[in-house]
Design goal:
single chain; 152 residues; alpha+beta; Nuclear Transport Factor 2, Chain: A; 6-stranded mixed β-sheet; 5 helices; 6 strands; SnoaL-like domain-containing protein; NTF2-like_dom_sf
Length: 152
C-alpha cells in the first residue's frame, strides 16, 4: 500500500465534488465510492431538522439513498471548494465549500459555506463522506420561514 501524493488526493477529491457540483446523475456520483469497503455518508445535524441529517447512510444502497433524498428535496448551484487540507498518510481531504441551496417545496434559497471531509480507500475511491452545514437555514427554508428570519 503506497501513500498517494497530495496531488493525487486533490484530483480524486475534485473529481468527486465535481460530480456533486454538476448535480450529476446518480450513477456518476455512486461510481466515485469504494467497492472494496462499505462506504458511508453522514451530514451532521439533528434528524428533526431535515430528513437527510444526523444518521449514517452505509453501503452502496445507503449512499444512493442519501443523494436521492438530497436531490428530491434540494437544488444547488454555484458549488465550489477551497482551502483544502490534505493528509496523504490517512488518505483524507477536508475543504470548505460554498453553494446556493434551494428547498424545492418552498422555493426558498440561501447561500451557505460548509465543510466537507472525504476519506479515500487504496484505490482513491470515497469510503467516507462527511458534511457539516447550516442545518438551521435548511430547516427554516423547509418551513417557508427563511425570509422572515433574515428580516428579523
Amino acid at each position: 500500500m503506497t501513500t498517494p501524493s497530495r496531488t493525487e488526493l486533490i484530483d480524486a477529491f475534485n473529481s468527486f465534488v465535481g460530480a456533486l457540483a454538476s448535480g450529476g446523475d446518480m450513477a456518476n456520483i455512486v461510481a466515485h465510492f469504494s467497492k472494496s469497503q462499505s462506504p458511508e455518508v453522514i451530514e451532521y445535524g439533528l434528524t428533526v431538522l431535515a430528513p437527510f441529517l444526523g444518521r449514517p447512510y452505509v453501503g452502496a444502497d445507503g449512499v444512493a439513498e442519501y443523494f436521492n433524498t438530497i436531490g428530491t428535496i434540494l437544488t444547488w448551484k454555484d458549488m465550489g471548494y477551497y482551502e483544502h487540507v490534505v493528509d496523504p498518510v490517512v488518505r483524507k481531504v477536508s475543504a470548505k465549500g460554498k453553494a446556493t441551496w434551494t428547498w424545492k417545496s418552498t422555493g426558498q434559497s440561501w447561500q451557505e459555506t460548509f465543510t466537507t471531509t472525504v476519506d479515500f480507500d487504496d484505490e482513491l475511491k470515497v469510503k467516507r463522506y462527511q458534511v457539516w452545514a447550516d442545518s438551521g437555514a435548511a430547516y427554516l427554508a423547509s418551513r417557508g420561514e427563511l425570509r422572515n428570519a433574515e428580516v428579523s
